[in-house]
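Listing 4. Sequential folding, example run.
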Amino acid sequence: MDFLDEPFPDVGTYEDFHTIDWLREKSRDTDRHRKITSKSKESMWELIKSLLDAWSGWVVMLLIGLLSGTLAGVIDLAVDWMTDLKEGVCLSAFWYSHEQCCWTSNQTTFDDRDKCPEWQKWAELMTGTSEGAGAYLLNYLLYVLWALLFSFLAVSLVRVFAPYACGSGIPEIKTILSGFIIRGYLGKWTLLIKTVTLVLAVSSGLSLGKEGPLVHVACCCGNLFCSLFSKYSKNEGKRREVLSAAAAAGVSVAFGAPIGGVLFSLEEVSYYFPLKTLWRSFFAALVAAFTLRSINPFGNSRLVLFYVEYHTPWYMAELVPFILLGVFGGLWGALFIRANIAWCRRRKTTRLGRYPVLEVVGVAGVTALLAFPNPYTRRSTSELISELFNDCGALESSQLCDYVNSPNMSRPLDDIPDRPAGPGVYTALWQLALALVFKVVVTVFTFGMKIPSGLFIPSMAVGAIAGRMVGIAVEQTAYHHHDWIIFRNWCRPGADCVTPGLYAMVGAAACLGGVTRMTVSLVVIMFELTGGLEYIVPLMAAAVTSKWVADAFGKEGIYESHIQLNGYPYLDVRDEFSHRTLAADVMRPRRSEPPLAVLTQDADSVEEVEALIKGTDYNGFPVVVSRESERLIGFVGRRDLTLAVKTARQKQEGVVSSSLVFFTEDPPPLPDDPPPPLKLRRILNLSPFTVTDHTPMETVVDIFRKLGLRQCLVTRKGRPQTHGPDDGPGPRVHHVQLVLLRAALHPCSGLHCTRTHLYIHLPGVCLP
């Protein structure tokens, strides 16, 4: 009897912190699809079921887009309100942000559009006056207290309810999409807590953004809707196709960049991205962007976050400062990655890691104390970037636009010539210089704390500040020295030559590229984010330069560095394998180690199988004809074998410790009156992936990357090896030897338990 004719729970599933078998998942989906197709010809009901199955993927994409777009809109509105709450409150409707409050006021003038009677700062509300040192200190104190409260609530909720809701989430998403299992990382509680704490963390004024965590939120939405359809809930490979599309929707709502979101998922996040997933990612990003646009959280009837309108084209001579900004972005990216990884490693290895609440509250307090005196660090980072990107028109009231106007100027409002900088510009420059130093330092200590924290916006802020300063410098140089040879051909006196806001945009792209090492998706996100389609070439020049410069100091971006720091098993397709070794040099076990544990097809008892499972920690066992011939016939997973034996003892009558276990179609010859044998052929993989012992390791690593293997068996003459190569004197082993490049269980620091690592062991080298 084959008791496995009736399926039982959990066979074919994976344990936590293990890798999936992509080939097995693909084969399962092919079998499922073949059955549905054949049944659809039997009746009208089966045909309808097959059509529903075919459309389920598009339904999931629609639901992901709707939910992620809605959550992003709610988060944007809540962040605006709570950020302004640190400075004051709207008397007419306390749930209005500063901007919304003054929009609804009938007493707001254009010159004082940021001031209205309905909006009062805390000192004015409590003491009746908004001027003087006392009012300033009271506003300062309440600003710091609100920041401490928001950060404390954020880290407490994460610590108590959802430890996986901390951080950016993109390193873990990349690892999950490569085939790793992290139970609960995309669960309902994580979705809820991450949404709430993301609002609190961004509103606290910490140097972090909401864009990276929104990718995690969107993937949680994708995982939630996968559970509604067995097509995705029972197949980990298909589930990851949905998560790839969800990541695209996350970037789409984070930046208002649906095409950039698809390219981000393809270039930066996804491990397996078939053409079908590309179409569905595009649809999910479209629905998400449409939903966000319907909510209109920015109040400008546009989807983009930093819409700009520049009235001056860029000139070829400006490529020099653009490339210099790319060099700065690459240097900043390399410096940030090294400093942040060093600090995170120190956090993991010292007592600091034991007090996450104290660390978050301490960093939030220091950030608020240093940020309040400077108007460019006091406001939200998104508002800062928006002001730095803006062109100085006649209606701008920013300090950055305090130029000396000529009394004879009679040009259109959108074509203002270059002018000498006024005192407000010089004041803004040194304040921006202080803000640049502040952002560079504090972001290193903020990213990686136990709260939701994104890196896109802080990186863009660093680049935008540096770019605006460079832009003003170039503008003033061109104005005062327009007769220099580099300006003579394109910058005549009285002309509008240089746009400092464009330099801020290019600097933001350069710094973001230096940190993440994105190129194509970065440029598309930037022009979708700003609407600056004609400035693609400067953006491309800065992005490529920053990547080249940053790669000179290390190939890994910030997300790959955090993957390595956390010890996740991730084989990056961009890594190069330069060691000239063979599979026989790398395989386990080695000569000095015990022989590889194998099962025979019809000679082991239940007791022997259970002893093998208990005495080893391997994730699977080769099945051979016999221990004498050692001809390989298949491979059986540890989890499937454990569940099968356990279930057989419960459900199959007469199975005892001495019962024979066989993997063949027919039972072997048995003695008289034996206990019932146990047939386990159903869980046997009859086509395990094998290579010969002389296969170059470069080929083996490529196989693991491109096929997503969980293990690879190395054979000689069709037989598995039981020892490593004989490197010393004495008789050589003539058995075919088997090597398992396996997912070996290693203890490591984690939130709950050990993680599974895929290790390829080389002499003196350990490559994840």
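-- end of first protein; second protein begins --
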Amino acid sequence: MRRFLLLYATQQGQAKAIAEEICEQAVVHGFSADLHCISESSKYDLKTETAPLVVVVSTTGTGDPPDTARKFVKEIQNQTLPVDFFAHLRYGLLGLGDSEYTYFCNGGKIIDKRLQELGARHFYDTGHADDCVGLELVVEPWIAGLWPALREHFRSSRGQEEISGTAPVASPASSRTDLVKSELLYIESQVELLRFDDSGRKDSEVLKQNAVNSNQSNVLIEDFESSLTRSVPPLSQASLNVPALPPEYLQVHLQESLGQEESQASVTSADPIFQVPISKAVQLTTNDAIKTTLLVELDISKTDFSYQPGDAFSVICPNSDSEVQSLLQRLQLEDKREHYVLLKIKTDTKKKGAALPQHIPARCSLQFIFTWCLEIRAIPKKAFLRALVDYTSDSAEKRRLQELCSKQGAADYSRFVRDACACLLDLLLAFPSCQPPLSLLLEHLPKLQPRPYSCASSSLFHPGKLHFVFNVVEFLSTAPTEVLRKGVCTGWLALLVASVLQPNTYASHEDSRKAVAPKISISPRTTNYFHLPNDPSIPIIMVGPGTGIAPFIGFLQHREKLQEQHPDGNFGAVWLFFGCRHKDRDYLFRKELRHFLKHGILTHLKVSFSRDAPVGEEEATAKYVQDNIQLHGQEVVRILLHENGCIYVCGDAKNMAKDVHDALVEIISKEIGVEKLEAMKTLATLKEEKRYLQDIWS
């Protein structure tokens, strides 16, 4: 079979899952994929690789390649490499990203650009998949187009070999064997498609019959609205292109436990984990604020955890107890929740390179795995829906799951699964005849990811302590019925600190109450770019509405201590653009900001209140932080372009970061009299110089 090298660089498993899908489809199309994580450099060698290369790369942070690609990127960025270093290489690259972030698909773009600079050439155009609208909208057609591109590559390269007389000679026996295997797999795949086409027609007939029955009650099927569980024509009557069934590969055995205790230490992590007590928790907003914002203080004095202002760290959090119990009940496994889960690879699996999931520790209970290891809130991918089809007995439910994972049902999948934040439990409640085995869930549910938070303190100001700030996330899940849910981590933290929570008395540093301090597990994050300049004379501008102010409180605390230590030092101007809804409800750190302003730590404070009636001319024109930036455009441009200053933006990626970027383009264009394109280039230069820094999230 014709071989290609398939590499993936993943942060949270998306790129790996897509690469595995390519690997499985390759066999059906008569190819053999040599699949590796890009970090496994001992298993491949691009310097000598003669086969075509396919790379799937995600993006992390604010445009960085994933951690697994760091070593690879560092190696290819070596400036001593000759320009023809990869001249022999032909490749296709699929980048994954989120257009809510400024550096869309930048992880892939960095690798793509450098491979080209080193002489590699595309045999297939690069794809950029957008998680903001649904990765599958680009991923599925990109994979479909990969096979003809590979066939054309092998055809043309074979022609070149024949011209040069270097065509490799394969043994007739092995060629025949590969051909027979390839043809058999191709026939199997066609049978699979035909089977779905037939079942689609049969189920369409069922739905048509339902429509006839409904007609007898004077209700037409067209009168119904589509929903998670029900479609309407033309989809309900369409023949479907359904993805191939992902091969099952796990064998699960449940063993009664001997009452051994489990701990969070069993949770797998690439970074060191510190268990630290919560020493204080403060509600920063009033009870009538739209969002509840909490500040939590951790006691890190008995650990060697260290941080700088601007750093972030991860909180290892569990799933909601009630959701875990509901899921186990629905799976009829509640009576086995204390049983140990023993995993093995199925001996007859067709999955190439099948391996035990690394995020599921050995000899842990079912309850522990569902609580601490699996992202049970994850939006099920189409491959998961396809796998659930075969464990659904009701024909109408089966048909609907087929529709949701089909090419024809892409819009319904986006609307009722992805956009509705449907999770596995929602699907199982919506489709009661679906009875998947535990092994299938362990194969498809991704790792429960630690949640990142910005450090909101300075260790100079609060020795042995670490502060962070968050909104308690609440959202409506609409599948299959409306349910108010809290964020996995913020909901858990809010519950955890309830016994020690204080009202907004952040300025008082002593807690008079003596409640037992709950503990949480944290790990450091390796980002090291969002820091104060080494030279304190450099002026800085900070933009942080809402909880985006968190790292800037750390900056200001740090500067206060530095100014105390160096009273004659040269310290540059410090601007803060802050915004919130209401002055009296969610103006976070109001007293602290006044203190910093009064003592000259903060030289300019510009605050916007988006929901209050404006008072005075400035408030009337500055509803949001970007409005205030435009109002003070002359000073901002002077700092950035004439005084070598830095600008930091922290907060929401979806709207705020883009609006701030647009405002900066506007003021640069206006103040120095250039076209917007030129202003955008100026900002790009600031980013390259690490003078325009973002810590943003969606």
